[in-house]
Write a structure and sequence with these properties.
With 287 residues, the chain is an alpha/beta fold. The protein has ten helices and ten strands. The structure holds magnesium ion (MG). The site of magnesium ion has 6 residues, from loops. Magnesium ion binds next to loops.
Length: 287
């Protein structure tokens, strides 16, 4: 993370077929770092070369390679359970292979973290799927480790303590966390600020995303994503807690599920909010 400030504001964005064009879209917000997502259907042939050239030319630092997979559906909790990450058995092998391929591309870009949603890890270790998912995580930790990377799980689908136990059971020092405070609220898995205390030492990256709790009368529904500062995540408390636990990495703004120009407007407002919060920290004001 050479040349970046502590808590540098960045962006979570997805690679398009033209690396330079994708980066210029990300850079229009005045940012110089972010998390580069590789959609499951993006061909990876030539990606290492084109992204290396683009990142160098645009003086942009990618700190994480994020994987999504063909066939994932985030519409509601049952569909997430059925389709997301390494949990569904039918797609697990091909998704592990895809993650390894992204890890190889990321290695050529000096990216030290490969992240994904692993899916709904069963809450009970006695569940039939639990050892299978643990072993999949071990396999990817070992592969990413050979590439000098962490394998990084995004929070959301599990309560913090379930995730903590899973990390202990995988027994790999390079299994890390990408902490998304909104996901904990959207999935109803717990208070994100309290979760930072539980998971703190495992966190290598964070998303700055906001959202509301799911409706109480619809147990299968997810909460609603919201522009940063307008949902149920207490953003000043989130940043204060990150500083308290010693987090120094990028604050990657994530805004999805809205179309342009709303998305760009929301990202600009999010940057302004994070700058205001940072300024209040510097001045020592009470948050
Ligand atoms: Mg996220």
């Amino acid at each position: 993370m050479l040349g970046l400030n502590d808590l540098e504001i960045g962006l979570m964005f997805w690679a398009g077929p033209d690396a330079r064009k994708t980066l210029r879209e990300a850079k229009q917000f005045g940012l110089r770092a972010g998390q580069l997502g590789f959609p499951g259907d993006l061909p990876l042939e030539g990606a290492a070369e084109s992204w290396d050239a683009a990142l160098t030319a645009e003086h942009f630092t990618a700190v994480t390679a994020v994987c999504s997979y063909i066939g994932e559906d985030y519409a509601d909790i049952p569909r997430v359970a059925r389709t997301v990450g390494l949990v569904p058995p039918d797609t697990r092998r091909e998704r592990i292979a895809r993650t390894k391929a992204v890890s190889d591309v990321a290695r050529s870009l000096a990216i030290e973290s490969v992240a994904c949603h692993i899916g709904f890890v069963p809450h009970e270790p006695s569940h039939l799927l639990y050892p299978e998912i643990r072993d999949a995580a071990r396999e990817l930790c070992d592969y990413c480790g050979e590439n000098g990377q962490s394998f990084t799980l995004e929070t959301g689908q599990e309560p913090a303590r379930t995730l903590l136990r899973f990390i202990a059971d995988v027994e790999r020092p390079n299994l890390k966390i990408n902490f998304d405070p909104a996901n904990m609220i959207l999935y109803g898995t717990g208070d994100p600020i309290e979760a930072l205390d539980v998971l703190g030492k495992h966190i290598v990256s964070v998303h700055c995303k906001d959202g509301d709790w799911p409706p109480r009368d619809q147990p299968e529904a997810l909460g609603q994503e919201r522009p940063l500062g307008e949902g149920s995540v207490d953003i000043p408390a989130f940043i204060a807690k990150l500083k308290e636990i010693g987090y120094k990495g990028v604050l990657a703004i994530e805004r999805e599920n809205v179309s342009e120009p709303q998305r760009s407007e929301d990202i600009r407002k999010a940057i302004a909010l994070l700058k205001r919060v940072a300024a209040r920290h510097r001045s020592g004001a009470t948050l």
